[in-house]
Amino acid sequence: MSDSNGWYYCLTHQTVEQGKGCKGPDRMGPYQDEATAARALEIARERTKAADESDKKWRGDDED
């Protein structure tokens, strides 16, 4: 279910949309504003990198 006021990033069309738009599996969000939704892929990359670093520390792979 879409938040009618939320902002989303559509992976299919590579555009930002507000409220109801493309199907849920094709979208990232909701985000609080249009500018944040536009950064959805960058935010995902940052979160993935942080999770990868956390996993390395947890496994002990971060040691030189």
Automatic annotation (TrEMBL):
Residues 45-64 are annotated as: Disordered. This is SPOR domain-containing protein. It comes from the Bacteria.
